[in-house]
Amino acid sequence: MHGPVPPVWTCGGCDLPWPCPTRKRELRAEFDRAPVSLALYMGSYFVWAAEDLAWLPAGTLHRRFVGWVR
Hints:
3 helices; mainly alpha
């Protein structure tokens, strides 16, 4: 499973930074006809991760969690 492993926010399936490329593909497929819902879903993870990864610049976190959502 390519789920997040807080507080380091790596992928439980491949150990890449979460969301990994595999999870992004899965999420795009899951939310195919609901891009706003995907943005809201990832926005909630963005807020959660920001607490754990406070040392990362906000722009980096935004690109990682929300910036790829179209």
